[in-house]
């Protein structure tokens, strides 16, 4: 049996779909889990409670941690240290392998201009500090021989299951659907790698079912062609010609994030992350693509599939 902790989010759903290639028994764990596949087993649990996490992991060969907390620094500071301790302890006790779906917030500053598995942990934000501590917890457990684990990293992402949680979808797709100009942060001329959720979910499942992949950091599969913010807007606009939205992209400058953040909470939270938009942000997945001979979905195809899946009447 393989278990998804934090099932139901954009990535958890895609991992559940992909795991059917490897197992007939997928356990979905969250407060209110819902089946993705007909054969899924549901396990309601509060992952803040170590006893419940222990029960949720019991009997599992591999556990995938795909939790996505609400985008609030204070909440992350409260929740993540507790969650990762609960999960690491439970996996260690049950001799269950752990695959942690991670973002790249632990990597900061100019290190985001070319992100590889060897990029140094170098947070430059409060949310990055939280994720760095989580990464170190997992890596330390591996070094001490407490468990076998993988940190599977992904950049920003988009896809049919992530409309509510993807910055790319919020800035571009949601505006175009409303007939408004697409938006971007800081500098739309900078490249910005963005993952496609089906590729990220499949890649996570592939790693979890490859014994030689453990006790390493992996960048999940992403198209090596990284468009600029303006080019991302153009890709979506090309697939949404009847949206009647103005051409081009409206850029929200860094100082604007701070000002607008006084009224819009998510923009306040994005202010400290502006370093991911005011310079190139390139995610290098060559290690994964080479090891698995994997060809990620192209950005053009990914946008086409996403828009088609979400197409609304008249658009």
Strands, helices and their partners?
Layout: E1 2-5, H1 10-19, E2 26-30, E3 41-44, H2 50-57, E4 62-65, H3 73-94, E5 97-102, H4 126-143, E6 149-153, E7 157-158, H5 167-177, E8 182-185, E9 195-196, H6 197-208, E10 216-219, H7 229-239, E11 249-252, H8 254-261, H9 265-270, H10 286-291, H11 299-310
Parallel strand pairs: 1-2, 1-4, 2-3, 4-5, 5-6, 6-10, 7-9, 8-11
InterPro entries: Epimerase_deHydtase (IPR001509), Lipid_A_modif_metabolic_enz (IPR050177), NAD(P)-bd_dom_sf (IPR036291)
Domain NAD-dependent epimerase/dehydratase: 4-180
Protein name: NAD(P)H-binding protein
Description:
By secondary structure, this protein is an alpha/beta fold. The chain has two domains: 2-156 and 194-219, NAD(P)-binding Rossmann-like Domain (Rossmann fold); 161-193 and 224-310, UDP-galactose 4-epimerase, domain 1 (Alpha-Beta Complex), CATH 3.90.25. The longest helix is centred in the N-terminal third of the chain and has 22 residues, at 73-94. The protein starts with a strand and ends in a 5-residue tail after the last helix. The protein is built from eleven helices and eleven strands. The chain is 39% helix and 14% strand. It has a seven-stranded parallel sheet with strand order 3-2-1-4-5-6-10, sandwiched between helices. Strands 7-9 form a two-stranded parallel ribbon.
